[in-house]
Amino acid sequence: MEKYIFSILIALLTLPVFAQKQAQAKLMLDKTAAAFEKAGGVQADFTVEAFNKGGSLGKAIGNIKLKGEKFLLKTSETISWFDGKTQWSYLTQNDEVNISTPTEEELQGMNPYALLYLYKKGFDYKLGVEKKFRGTPVSEVVLTATNRKQDLSRIVLYVTKDTYEPVFIAVEQRDGSRSEITITRYQTGLKLADSVFVFDKKQYPTAEVIDLR
Q: What is the mean pLDDT of residues 130-137?
């Protein structure tokens, strides 16, 4: 019985500290999401490395342009346009374009910035350690999925302390696989026309168009 009482006391004593850290984490996430929303048109260069069972599966570099929920994502293998409803994915090697209406989960896999809003539902979050990342002071925020059945299990986010810009995102899946995204260049306040986020057939005249909707 004594050990149960001791455990309850420990829980009661540490609860305010946990609640405070959770509130600090939410404030950090709120400010990061708000900074992104106020940034207007955004362009970011990034590297992404995939891991499975502790080993690296390879690295890739890419570029993404964003305006609200719209994005244009480019890597060496694919180009993806999303206008807020429809997605066009161009496969460079096959010279083909797949048209689809992506689910929320599919968008999270394509657009790393969609992860900034996951904390609003289905995730617990806490503030981690403060550190330097690539010479820049950052705050660490850790998000853990509350639904153990979903594939995405954990997200680790590094945010700059002054400007609330995400510079590193680690995404962990339930099966143990992991992706690490490092932002190498970040620009805000860009004026991006809506046409930037729509596939233009004239630019890819030989591409085969496959409608999957």
A: 90
CATH superfamily of 24-211: Lipoprotein localisation LolA/LolB/LppX (2.50.20.10)
Phi, psi of 76 (to 5 degrees): -70, -20
Tokens 């570029």 locate to 63
pLDDT mean over 170-183? 84
* Rounded-to-integer distance, Cα 114 and Cα 141, Å: 16
Sheet with strand 78-82: strands edge to edge: 123-133, 136-145, 152-160, 166-173, 178-190, 41-52, 55-67, 70-75, 78-82, 87-91, 96-100, 208-211
Cα radius of gyration rounded to whole Å, the chain: 20
Whether 79 and 73 have beta carbons less than 8 Å apart is answered as yes
Q: Is the pLDDT of residue 11 over 50?
A: no
Q: Which amino acid is at 96?
A: E
Domain ranges of the chain: 24-211
Indicate the pTM of the whole model.
0.72
Torsion angle, alpha carbons of 186, 46, 181, 146, to 10: 50
| Neighbour count for residue 152 (Cβ, 10 Å) | 19
CA–CA gap between residue 107 and residue 68 (Å, rounded): 13
